[in-house]
Specification:
homodimer; alpha+beta; Arc Repressor Mutant, subunit A; three-stranded antiparallel beta sheet; 3 strands; DNA-binding
Chain lengths: 97, 97
DNA sequence: TAGATATTTAAATAATTATCTAAATATCTA
DNA sequence: TAGATATTTAGATAATTATTTAAATATCTA
């Protein structure tokens, strides 16, 4: 299975895409993120975990809070996937996904 | 709900991503596509339908066959979504998703 | 150390999605 | 028009995913 499978699955959920866009503006704690949704904290925690497993975000504890921030590396790889589709026939060789 | 929701959901499945990559190389009939998978034709038909609803592919009947081909428009919009994430803080205004 | 705050983990349930078999539709050809 | 081929649609089931409540863990502070 492609390494991009988890990130693609992670971004298929609108709540998680919104979280990503919030983190684009600034790093935030789990609690701050949860405040923006009509959803319990455990649900947001679950979504954050999926984003983390997909390596789309990084978490770091600072005291009582856990800060979440974007990890742009995998986003770059996803952009490459789309480029490969959008580009003319043939494209790069050795692509996995 | 964002207009990108369906395409994101559509691309979260590895079978559908593989179909997209096959169609990048050349247009194919539903039957040709199905031959590449360990899956029944109705299952592939279901996946093609999801890709079609997401406007990632176009279908056109030619005689007994139905040819599928890429519709790159939505891919472009998805690339823009990723650019917006990858770019520096702020980014373009008026983004919906 | 006890209590308060922040967050996650666990367990259950509801909702969504993928897959199959069987049947239907559309087209071609003899 | 009857039979063959290509594909989809319908209906059922299994698997996955999202969500909730309740409980657990980690950290801070009085």
């Amino acid at each position: 299975m492609s390494i991009l499978n988890m990130p693609f699955k992670a971004l298929s959920d609108p709540t998680r895409r919104k979280i990503i866009q919030m983190l684009k503006e600034r790093d935030m704690t789990a609690g701050e993120i949860a405040e923006h949704f009509n959803m319990t904290k455990p649900s947001i925690s679950h979504h954050l975990n999926i984003l983390k497993q997909a390596e789309l975000v990084i978490d770091e504890r600072k005291g009582q809070n856990i800060y979440y921030s974007l990890n742009t590396t995998v986003f770059q790889e996803m952009v490459n996937w789309f480029f490969n589709i959008t580009d003319k026939k043939g494209g790069s060789i050795g692509e996995e996904d």
